[in-house]
Amino acid sequence: MKVVLTLIGGPTALIEVAGTRLLTDPTFDEPQAYDAGTITLVKQTGPATDPASLLPIDAVLLSHDHHWDNLDRSGRAFLAQAPRVLTTPAGATRLGGSTEGLKTWESVVVHGPEKNSVRVTATPARHGPVGIEPVSGDVVGFVVTPENSSGSIYVSGDTVWYEGVAAIKDKFDIRLAILFTGAAQPRGTFHMTMGSNDAIEFAHAFPQAHIVAIHNEGWEHFMESQSELARSFATVGLASRLTSLERGVPVAFEV
Predict the structure, then answer these.
(1) For 10-140, where are the E strands, in sequence order?
(2) 0.90 cut: is pTM over it?
(3) What is the chain's mean pLDDT, rounded?
């Protein structure tokens, strides 16, 4: 199975697989500060690619709609150009339009332009430590399984490593994992997304998976960069498992 990934910036990546084009969490605004109620989120870099150049898209995989660093103003406008937007049930209610809310383990088929298809399944996600749910809100991850393939792609969305993520290994053969990392700390010293420890736990639990780490640059609240994560992987003998991405540069995987 060939997969081509292009990191656009932050949590936004283009996934090309089995004749379909999927986009994760669209964020296309230029650098600015966002008032998020009790906190301010500061975006430091703009997208690597003009969003118009990414069209056509077969579906957007939106982990959640209510945080600026996962769906900003330009990203929200982009949703109208996607035939399908898959997200949480709560997010679908807020967004309306072509948005579909998926419950955990629910799946749908996304068709490409030439009758190719992939199955997208919603997976558990928890955006921070136990007890954070009323503050952080609902989030979702995704597993993408191409037609006639036994291997799958995992898109974590904003989650930490916990038993819900571990349960994925009992249902899917993950060959490529796109982890939202950065050890985000927008509200305190606890992490809202995966840090090195989480990503290393994931790597050991899913030994067949190629791993890439995104959503670790471009925002002030990220505590751990892609290069720092790479050093952690090297320290524990996992350097060969992690592929670093350069913004705007397509990378092909055979999985």
Answers:
(1) 12-17, 20-24, 32-36, 39-43, 59-61, 85-87, 99-101, 107-111, 117-123
(2) yes
(3) 96
